[in-house]
Amino acid sequence: MNLGNKTLNNIISKDNSAAKEAAIKLLAEKDLESFKILNSKSEFLFDFIKEKILKNLIGAVNSENCSNLFEFLKVYSPDFKGFILLPLVQFKTPEIEDKMQKFLLEGCDEEKTYATEFFTILGDKTKYEKIKANLNADFGPLKIASINYLSNLGFRLEFEESLKILEDNSKDNFEKLTSVEFLAYFGDKKAFEPIYNYFINEDNSYTIANFLLDLKPFSTLIEENKEDEILNILSSIILNFPDSISFEEINYYINEGLFEFLLESENNLSALIVFYLKNKIELILADENYSIDLTKENKKEANIINSKLNNAIQIFDKIETLTLGLNSINYFENILSLEIIKEENIEIVEPIYNLFEKTTNNEIMMDILYCLQNQNKLNEALINKILLKTENEILKAQIKSFIQ
Q1: Is residue 268 included in any domain, yes or no?
Q2: CA count, 13 A, side-chain hemisphere, 120
Q3: Please, which residues have CB within 8 angstroms of residue 12's CB and are 6 or more apart in sequence?
Q4: How do residues 50-64 score in pLDDT, each as one tens digit?
Q5: By C-alpha distance, which of 111, 105, 52, 49 is closest to 77?
Q6: 382 lies in some domain
Q7: CA-CA distance, 38 to 41, in Å (whole number)?
Q8: CB neighbours (10 Å) of residue 260?
Q9: What is the Cα–Cα distance from 101 to 105, expressed in whole angstroms?
Q10: pLDDT tens-place string over residues 260-308
Q11: How far apart are CA 27 and CA 45, in angstroms?
Q12: Is residue 62 in a domain?
């Protein structure tokens, strides 16, 4: 890979001497532009290469040239921040601490982020008030670093306040989402249940599902035998596959023990997940719009999963599974059933009408319309009835399109 200049090409070189000399040169010349390029290209580098680069960059720093690092604080680098933070802590002097405090007070967002992480490593509780002011920063790394400071140094007030917001019905969705984000980054597993309750009752989104998995991955939930939590969170994720979620991510979850869990579960939602996944795996294998992004290894893995899914569905009665899903009070059972019916054009009419009568969910109502349209069961009277059930003007316009 050509990174654009000699210093960077040497820094990724297999020649250890050249790589070490390039790291020394980058620091000595305070070569911020090369550090920017290195950071921007980082996602294309193998982990072992990044580890080698980081080791060489840290090795280039000593007590004499440590102050050169201040130039690099203008670029926040998740992969190479150890190059800056570890030596600054190791060679810490009153002058370095004063400089980092100045960055915390007056620096750009990137400098404030490094300074926050610096004082977190030092365990300096005296910076609480200033760091607290950045909890809602627009710059994501600064927000996360500020939350981590509170969590690591034992400040609990904001954590407890965020829990209360989730339980307060008078708070709007924006405030609750902000609280969910804070609680997830804070990292205390005590927040899992309140966030999960919010997820089930108010926001079923993939974003909230991922926040939940940050606190407790599927492997932990499997150990705790949290069947409902596993199935609902997984449903939220697979509903975004393959348009917004890659096969690699789905494959990772399946290999984390979820496939066996699905087959062992007697929950109807597990059967729906199996049917839905089978359709989507077959789609990415057959449709070049998706298959073009699959490597040979991906295709091999997808075919293996597809074979397992085809074997698995033999133990389920599809019509019974879908009917139970439509009759359920669980949002994910409803929406997965409708998606499967829509994709396979399966004719199940009465349970769909029954779901229409009880639902107030806009997404479910739209899927009902599509299913009934595919089955030639849609009429103007039913559409008008649906229009009366929603106040969402955008949705109303979509619904009216069915009779135009």
Answers
A1: no
A2: 22
A3: 1, 3, 19, 45, 49, 53
A4: 999 999 999 999 999
A5: 111
A6: no
A7: 5
A8: 10
A9: 6
A10: 888 888 899 999 999 999 999 999 999 988 888 888 999 999 999 999 8
A11: 21
A12: yes
Amino acid at 325: G
Residues of the chain with pLDDT > 70, as a percent, come to: 99
pLDDT at position 257 is 78
Q: Round to whole Å and give the CA distance between 189 and 175.
A: 20
167-175 LR contacts (CB < 8 Å, sep 24+): 167/194, 173/202, 173/203
Distance CA 68, CA 16 (A): 23
Res. 396 pLDDT band, cuts 50 70 90: confident
Expressed in angstroms, the distance from the first to the final Cα of the chain is 55
pLDDT of residue 267: 93
Average pLDDT on 200-205 reads 92
How much of the chain exceeds pLDDT 90, in percent?
71
Virtual torsion, Cα 271, 273, 274, 276, nearest 10 deg: 120
SS (H, E, C) 90-156: HCCCHHHHHHHHHHHHHCCHHHHHHHHHHHHHHCCHHHHHHHHCCCCCCCHHHHHHHHHHHHHCCCC
Asked whether the whole model's pTM tops 0.90, one would answer no
Could you give the CA distance from residue 317 to residue 324 in angstroms, rounded to a whole number? 11
Domain that holds residue 107: 6-131
Does 105 map to a domain? yes
Give dist(CA 238, CA 284) in Å, integer.
13
Structural domains of the chain, count: 1
